[in-house]
Task: inverse folding
């Protein structure tokens, strides 16, 4: 996965060990990077934040 850019679920699911629903719950809790809406119907995760999560998934917390 490149360091820059965005990734959608179809790309991301190979790298995360849980379901899309668990990812959504962790995202709401601040324990997984938040999606950004690129258009009205298209949301993706910023790759830089995903790499931060990959480096330390247990202690990851969103900023802000």
Result:
């Amino acid at each position: 996965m490149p360091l820059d850019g965005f990734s959608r679920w179809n790309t991301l699911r190979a790298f995360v060990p849980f379901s899309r629903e668990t990812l959504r719950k962790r995202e709401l809790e601040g324990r997984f990077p938040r999606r950004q809406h690129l258009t009205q119907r298209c949301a993706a995760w910023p790759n830089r934040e995903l790499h931060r999560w990959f480096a330390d998934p247990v202690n990851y917390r969103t900023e802000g």
